[in-house]
């Protein structure tokens, strides 16, 4: 901007335009108003009183223009980023409707009533009565043959029986009280499962650390097609299911067992044996068990006292989480493959009897206590037996194995969200061997 200086004689002369102003004006010609152009041409000298106001106005206009340009550029980047976030792969999103239906436990009320009947000493149903009688016989209390079909009251006739009964009611009541949905339960598996096992093994300084690697070994007949034995045994921890045999199958399934994972039906069978023997992998191998029927706490009460190694019952909140996850995948599969409505799912999957498999929950346990999980013996083929160690061919209809396989594939993929898990829980790397 031209300046005007006053000579000693009172006349005024123009001073040169500062170089940085001319550079700005020529670099941004759209900022130059007609007045500015006339100034550059020295055709319109201004009085001293006008110059400061013009200078201030020019700087404001220049600053506003530069700022607006930056804001527009930043806004475009932000819009572009938001657009990219909003346009996601539909396969990476969870379905809200499926989540809502998967959260409904069809058999919840029946289960609550069953538990309350047991706590009240009501064993009048045929199934409960049969289990109760066999349990009394197991602990050597006199029940004559004529009384087998009589509804026995839950009155105690010996101090030993009375003690067992009190223990049974205590553990059942505590288990029932905790049975609810709590997605953060995955973060507690180290404390509830790993810590007791480590302490039994004499390890006291790794309570917050996961096992480096775990192999979860299923019982599918496809294991007979490969020699995975050495690979399985190379893992830090090996989890086996439902007392599956390893003798004569070592090359296929390995021989190492760190944790025996069973459902309570297995323990119920073991409870009929002398000493409640349920240790095919050795008496020092810890057992983790989930409860299929509340009545099976009778077996747990007796067998727990005879076990040298820990006999741990899974947290019922963990059970509820597993049930919801499997039901979500089962509902999704049912709708996609049948084209029917969600309200028809129950009739196709035995409704209240629908349940996850032991293998699925063992995999979930591995996710909670291991830094890396390898899955063996999950899957099927037309030529393979259902279980590698038995001649069983058919599957149980109360499980949806195909839905569980879809869950395992998502674990291996590692990108897809797993329903009902909290963000704070990070799913470890998973490898599945076929």
UniProtKB/TrEMBL annotation:
Q: Where in the cell is it found?
A: Golgi apparatus membrane
Q: Which UniProt keywords apply?
A: Glycoprotein, Glycosyltransferase, Golgi apparatus, Membrane, Signal-anchor, Transferase, Transmembrane, Transmembrane helix
* Keyword Transferase in annotation: yes
Taken from the UniProt record, the cysteine pairs bridged by disulfide bonds within this chain are: 214-370
Q: Report TM segments.
A: 20-40, 52-72
| Example of a GO MF term | sialyltransferase activity
Major location, coarse class? Golgi
Q: Does the keyword Glycoprotein apply?
A: yes
> May I have one GO cellular component term?
Golgi membrane
How is it placed in the membrane, per its record? Answer: Single-pass type II membrane protein
Q: Which family does it belong to?
A: Belongs to the glycosyltransferase 29 family.
Protein name listed in UniProt: Sialyltransferase-like protein
In which organism is this protein found? Lupinus angustifolius (Narrow-leaved blue lupine)
Taxonomy, top ranks, is: Eukaryota, Viridiplantae, Streptophyta, Embryophyta, Tracheophyta
